[in-house]
Amino acid sequence: MSFQQGLSGLNATSKSLEVIGNNIANSGTYGAKSSRAEFADFYAASLNGSMATSAGIGTYLASISQQFSQGSITATDNPLDLALNGRGFFQVSDGASPAKYTRNGQFKLDRDGYISTNSGLKLLGYEADLGTGQIKPGLAVPIKLPTGGIAPQATSEIDVQLNLDAAKKVIPATTPIDFTDASTYNNATSVTAYDDKGAPVALTYYFRHTSGPSEASPSDPDLWDVYVTANGRTVFPALAPDNSSPEALATLQFDPSGARLTAFTPNAAITDSDFDPVTGANRLGFDIQITAPDRNGIVPQPIAIGSLSFDVTQFAAPFGVTDMKQDGFSAGQLVSIGVEENGIVTARYSNGQTKSAGQIEVANFRNLQGLQPLGDNLWAFTHASGDPITGVPGEGNLGVLQAAALEESNIDLTGELVNMITAQRAYQANAQTIKTQDQVLQTLVNLR
Question: What are the two backbone dihedrals, phi and then psi, of residue 21, each rounded to the nearest 5 degrees?
């Protein structure tokens, strides 16, 4: 029996060395998980059911299980290198076979714009609406990045937030304003708007303090006229030659504290306007008629500003614009791709806009030990592992995503070297039991 026991021990330690060698070989493989050889003992069956005096007849390899602990995450320079910090697997597919699963996030763009592995399998996730960038959750499909540009959007809303200096001198309304003469207005600021074709339009606002309390007239209200030009040409009146006789866009009147407007009088040509005397909130809607070309010599198309809002105060503080925003933009081309923690793939364009191009879906399993290793850093689900539980990174107990990073192998190289020494000693010991049994039998045969 000792021959069988020693032989089984030799086979077991040989398998253990194979597992240790495989771990050492993959210590530098991104996403690789360490394996562990697990053994069980053998006992001969007994007719009477009593095993009290029975010796075992050896050991056998019960399982080679993988340890799915988290590996260290290292940063890289590739934005398509992805690492999962926590539970879950990336899903990849060739489009024909069932999805496979991996922790190796070394992804690249293929010739068709798909995010793929080195072996050509495509990363799965949710599609995004090409127009709005809205994610469409549902069946996971290969994620394809956009190759075209983004269409322009005409400006329809402009919000201006600023403070007008109450200490500024009063310029009588009878003094004609000259946009080339800074002495005829108090302050100016600009914002770039866009027409339907994405051509830029430089809108400049001029603010002129036309009335205010004085020693002679302490009860005079604070009034400010606001003028606007488009590419240097006055908007009111439209098409005015040489900006002659410009008209104010609106007249602002402040309460004594300067904290809010008490009156808001728009130009007579503006038919769409709102003013709330309680809050001082105001909104104008008007069309900008443009005749002057932009800096590229292009004459932009007219722009309809559906909402122009002024959030204005008049404190004894320097003139300052605290917010100036508009919702238009020019045409743009794709310049870069980024991936967020929740798996959303974001396309960034040359006009400063961003749009979602898809969202990565990840999968988890009840029994990770039941996954079948396929090689090439891939696993397949089995009946033992259970069906995949899918979701987006950071959802439920799924890990979060880190872009421009990779998960290193979780193999402890020092521990594997120590295990190798232990397995070597066990192999020598099992060989010694066979040698000893041989010597015992030889002695028995030599008895006279």
Answer: -60, -40
Task: Give the per-residue pLDDT at 178.
Answer: 93
Is 3.50.30.40 the CATH number for 157-326? no
Each residue of 93-111: pLDDT tens digit? Answer: 998 889 999 999 999 999 8
Phi first, then psi, for residue 185 (nearest 5°) are -150, 165
Maximal CA-CA distance, the chain: 143
Q: 19-24 long-range CB contacts below 8 Å, 24 or more apart?
A: 19/64, 20/416, 20/419, 20/420, 20/423, 21/420, 23/411, 23/416, 24/411, 24/413, 24/416, 24/417, 24/420
Structure tokens at 102: 């991996």
Domain ranges of the chain: 2-69+409-445, 73-150+333-407, 157-326
Structure tokens at 7: 């032989």
Share of the chain above pLDDT 70, in %: 96
Reference 194, options 244, 156, 225; nearest CA is 156
Q: Packing angle between helix 2-25 and helix 413-445, nearest 10 degrees?
A: 160
Mean pLDDT of 348-354: 90
Give the phi and the psi of residue 57 in degrees, each rounded to 5: -110, 20
Per-residue pLDDT tens for 402-443?
A: 999 999 999 999 999 999 999 889 888 888 888 888 788 888
Hey, is 18 helix, strand or coil? helix
pLDDT in tens, 17-28: 999 999 999 999
Which are the contacts of 162, defined by CB distance < 8 A and separation ≥ 6? 189, 311, 312, 313, 319, 320, 321, 322, 323, 324
What is the C-alpha separation between 154 and 157, in angstroms, rounded?
9
List the structure tokens of 283: 């909104």
Residue 313: strand pairing partners = 163
The pLDDT of residue 327 is above 70: yes
